[in-house]
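Lines hold sequence, tokenised fold; shown next:
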Amino acid sequence: MGNLCSLFAPPKPIKKRRPITKRQPSVPRSSSGPRNRIRSSSTRDNKFEDTILFGQQNSGDAGSLPFDRSASQRYPVSGSKKNQLPRSSSTRSRSSTDPLLQPHQFLSKGIKLDDLETNHFILIHGGGFGAWCWYKTIALLEEDGFKVTAIDLAGCGINSFNINSIASLSQYVKPLTNVLEKLPTGEKVILVGHDFGGACTSYAMELFPSKISKAVFLAAAMLTNGQSTLDMFSLQAGQNDLMREAQIFIYTNGNEHTPTAIDLEKSLLKDLLFNQSPSKDVALASVSMRSIPFAPVLEKLSLSDSNYGSVRRYYIETLEDNAIPVTLQENMINSSPPEKVYRLKGADHAPFFSKPQALHKFLLEIARIKDSHR
């Protein structure tokens, strides 16, 4: 989930408090101890409760450290508008129906799928989501003749893995790497990563650069070498009270240990994630979202210029996003500039719900970009 948490604070004396205990059917109780759920708040006694999103840093100047820019910077940005990244915007008025493209408009323009480097999209959901969130995007792409694979990462959607036992990013993204490993020799795909799925996308780019034609970061964590999702989101500590209020930390192994997962308060989902989305999609999400594994958020990525840096990157900004604010999206873009930036006006943190047609248009535009543009 976007803007998941902030840096750990140094240990504090622990006062006993009565934890809030709730049960969620989708996440079983661990044999190692009770599954305690503790809501984020501005005051707390447990040392791990200070790992909230955008919480105060008490461990030095870590929050003010500059980005370690990725060696993959092939498109530097200067202060001059003439040299800034190319950007494309959706300029329509806000509408839940999002009437932009008609089915098959892509093919009706005389564009042949066989002329593209690839006609295969792989969609990677964000934290707490699942493959189900892409249902509109899948339908639109398939109507235009594309092949679409939507991944359920470990413990998400219909994947039965226990979220609370996920100990690494590699374990979390195993369903994605399994698909990439099985691609026929010479076949390439376009990866689209949303939210925390951006970190998963970067991980896959480093492992399988020859199998990835392009990578699209959709309101996503676009990390630099040596950076974790935790590091990146901590740079805007203290600026997202809504996310902090929504978070509920899960301590399957006991409150004295690191949280194993994060839940989000369902009553706050609409304001946080779906403030521009149709009510039927909010209802779908409210019964489908699952916990977010905590360990992968802490993991620092190793991204090289020869692998990760060789894959063409694109970023799609969501301008009405309450989970990953535009300022943070811009921060990531400026720290490691992609080839091009697209802007979705009227899109919340779930553009596949709030602006499916505009998102579809941008994905088609990216698919059409030829090798010679590089």
